[in-house]
Amino acid sequence: MTRSTENRILATPLVLFLLVMLGFPTILDIIYSFSEVSFENLRSPTFNGGRNYISILNDPEFWSASWFSMKFGLATAFAECILGLVLAVYLAPIIRKNTWMIAVLIMPMMIAPAMMGLMYRLLLHEFVGALPHYMFYWLGDSPAFLSRENVFTTVFTIETLQWTPFAFLLFFMAYEAIPGEMREAAAVDGARGLRMFWHIEMPMMLPTIAVAFFVRFIDGFRVFDNIFVLTGAGAGGATTSLSIYIYLSFFRSGEIGNAIAASVILFCVSFLALFFAGRLLRRSGA
Amino acid sequence: MRTVRKLFYGGAASALLLATSIAQADVTVLGWPGGPEETALRAATEIYNARSEVAEDDKVKLIFFSRDGFFDKLQADLAAGTDAFDANLLATYSIGRYAPYMTPVSLSGDAADVFGESVLKTMQFDGKQYGVPTDLSLHFLYYRTDLIEELLADESAAAKYGDISEKHLGVRLEPKSPDDWTWQDFAANALYFSKSVNPDSPTRYGTVLQLKNLLFNIMVFHSLPRSYGADWMDADGNITVDSDAYREALKMYKILVEAGATPKDSFSYEYAEANSAFGSGQVAAMIQWNAAAADLTDTEKTPVTADVTKTIAPPTGPDGRFTHVHGLGLGVNANGKNPDGAKAFIEWLSTEDAAKAYALAGGATGLTSSVVSDIANERPDLVPLGEYASNYGFVMNGGTSAKALSVYELQAKEFTDYLSGGKSLDEALSATKDGMADLLN
Amino acid sequence: MSQKVKNLIRWLVFILVALIINFPVLATLSASLKTAAEISRNPGIFVQSPTLENYASILEVSERLNIFSYLQNSLIASTIASVLPIVLCFPLAYAVARRGYGKSLIFPTVVNLRAMPLIIFAIPLYMMYQSVGLLDTPLGLGLILAVVNLPLALLILVNAINDVPFELDEAARIDGARIFVILLKIVFPICLPALATVFIFSFITAWNEFLFGLMLTTTDAVPMTVGASFFFSSGGGGVQWGVAAAVIIVASVTPVVLGILMYKHISRSMIAGAVKG
Question: Where are the transmembrane segments (chain C) (predicted)?
């Protein structure tokens, strides 16, 4: 068996599964994205050329939703990775001896984001929520967590608190996987503390950091459940992420063609980004 | 590949045929989950299934979805031609959207005498009856009797009340009983009972506005502009959302928001949050759905305020007193497996006995005064409900069209944009007008 | 500063962080043990008169809202959605990691699925499921949730196989072992920790998913997250905080237990790694 046949066989199960599950939906979606289609004419869409794409690209709300998602994805991924890294490295000496600590620290990521949103609806409520209760008790006042000015900070914090554990977990595992000899060798050379971290440990953890950042960025970028439960689209659309934008135009406005065209654009852009990122990585690696 | 696709479509087609030809042995009805609507429907269904003339094949089985995303899911189901249920929930504002997948129904002969024409209308679209009305949803003014009594008794308060209303609303107003309130009085009261305006206020906020960007919240808002004469369209189909009526109403809300007369996080508030705020005892009065009355006057569920909470019709305005009203009901899914069974059930629900049974089991049925008097002892609250609906109830011109839901959503977005400081009033109203013109014409 | 003091500060930091990130869960747990009256009277985290009535009310209505059937549906769908991605991604991950196969098309396509709002497939899937009888079945739900899980599974497995020493499978290859034997006998055992990670992550993701659960089920296959939302309105029309909190806690028990398993698995694999190193 030649290598290329082998490769093809190795890829077959996944490719076949994807074709079966998403083949028909993808074809139909592509047709829809070039059609005038709503819930009334799902079975008989009328072709309208690229009009959906043009109207999406001219829709300021599409751009503001994209901007929100981009900002949210970058900010949360950044914060989660930094916090996760600090926690993993700083707490490593005591966690190593008390591994149950991991269970406590990764608890938040086990909760469904939709449930998390609901928890915060109660937690942040000025009259029945615990947080404002204590704020009033200790400080005499409680901020408007979900006002237009503060809502981004609030949802950013909620997302970061829930998913820093993800970054922490990956980093802690990577940190512990660094071979002891490397540290010993570096220590012999006089490296310790921060220097050891920057010059020895950090470079070894870089691939993990890249993966964590990438996964967190994508998840932040497509954020839906928790924000939707908490504030919906937000006052005047202030918390409309791209996923919320697509969901709303799909179900609420029934502009199926537009919603799918937006998704196709999203897919193509992220595909290109990943494609070139992969190329760059390979070139620099080689 | 081509054969695979052929097989797939062949299989799909035959499966479809099979699904439609097998007659299910019962009638599946999709109801509005939770709350009194569900309890009432269950009780009515039990009575129906026990009737000897109902064939075994036509017994009714109930199913429910989640309330979250209920209409989105229903939309997807109906559009894809589901046969998972034979009859389903309808709401006034969504009839136009679902009508393409529904079959008109015929009601019992005495339906007009039981519900009255105006209530039957909440289930009509294009002149056809699409369902039986089961529940009415409208708005009450909820207020605290203790606070009002104290205010009216205290003469020194009147001066302060006058000062506050003059400063914020530009007119000098006196404390009044809520029965005589105009919307101006409502606003003055809201300001007076807010700590940010009146540091001596016994409550933290004078009112609670539900301002989450959500279509239901805009319905709650609508009673206000309507009493200033607002409508979506004039008789010729011109959009009239930039009228003075809407402007007055939105400005009044804006004054309340900016003065801090409603909780800080109001832009994330909906039904539940508003009830919790009111129930905490830190809010003096609010406009809220009639459905909240049961909980808010129950000392078990709302211990702090239940004893001093009273409900009346919303305040009045230059054009009179109004309450936004819509009906919930049940209609027949055109793709269901047993449409005849579903029609029979719906026809039965429109008889006097069935409507009474439904109401007695907790439903908020809109009944004519002659029918409601028979059960007034058990359900005294249905008397004002029917009264308010027929005296003050309104549906905006275009409020049952196919795109009505989208209009509410558009307004929710634009109005909250203005109220939260994102857009000027003119910008928000002109964007709403353009959007509504696209949707309604 | 002595090592002891340093570690003491570490402990304090740990306690603080643990409290902050778990605060929503603790507050929800506390709310689930309060009566409706107490929630509005005492919003704080400490319960004055604990009650199980919220939990009891979940069971009371089990005739119409059967929490056990929601749990069972979630269990079936999540199991399918976590086993299938492993079976499907493992072979491809090998080809990607070892030979760079599919790096330009299959790999980015699959990984990109994670960035897509998959809800745009909801309507076509609905129609497809309807015609093949997968609508409102745990199997149907499990299959689409498997698609949701593919990207992370592939990503983790490619990484894991990258870490397997190349010499191991080269040696076996020289011995004439066939690719599938190498995969099963050599790579698979070494990757077990990564596979377990994939399984647990996938399971939790599937368990916690809401939108497909809502769209593709009606009565028979309703999963826990969707079923949970049934309870929120069961009393009046709005959210009943106490009951809602109790349902959230019940719905979260399974993934939290899995999380604890995951930590055990992690600490064990770390010990194994230490022995090896």
Answer: 12-33, 75-97, 109-129, 141-161, 182-207, 241-263
